[in-house]
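Quick note —
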Amino acid sequence: MAEITAAMVMKLRDETGLPMMECKKALQETKGDFELAKQKARESGKKIMAIRADRTTDEGRLAAYASLKPPVGAMIELQVESAPVAKHEDVVALANDLAKQLAIGPGAKTPDDLWKQPAPSRKGTTLQQWKDEIEGKMREVLRLARITRVEAPAGSYVHHDAKSGVLLVVEGGNDELARGIAMHVAAMKPKATSTADLDPALVEKERAILTEQARKEGKPENIIAKMIEGRMRNFYAEHVLSEQPFVKDDKQSVGKVAAAGGMKLVKFIRWQLGEVGGDKPAA
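Predicted structure written out below.
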């Protein structure tokens, strides 16, 4: 049996990221066979994480990747157990690789499909292998909660806390403008891309409320209709992307800014971390 030295234990720890005692135990059980010990240590880590698989993952981060050429965009939600782990550089890098691979790879119908694919920034490593490595080091569950992909020119924006993100599908324009409008969507949370895309029931409800208010103000019936149209413009400016004042220049609407840049707004997808039903694209 080969002598188990501190240097061997440290090397195994550096290569696996697992705790020192687990590395020492693996070397002892394999009688100093380093490669066998590495395999055994990783398998032990997987077993531990399998037992913890049902843990609650209330923290995490969103990541997105988008471009106009090639025309593609993707966004993912990677959940973890604690805020510090969500901010760890390895988790940040994994989330970014998941979004990039989803966008530029063959696509994936489910998170399981995506995990099987290669990690763009780690040659010879799958996303699943990278996930297993991080779980082994962090001892926290990582869960790919949802994924979405568009095969169209797109811009993206993820807020600095990685808890809100946007994919914006467009025609024309440039990457900088697409990202700027995606950032606007993240901040202003419109309900639809254009007035025609708003839920008709929501529009009629607002009209009814404004009409009733005008009647209570004693306005004549013959001018109420014109008043309502004027007040509805304020409603649209609050809820419709193309009508909202642009956050970077509130003297112009988003629609006018887009048009000036030769861009047509098609649709957006806005997610909030942990949001139920947040994977539905806005019209």
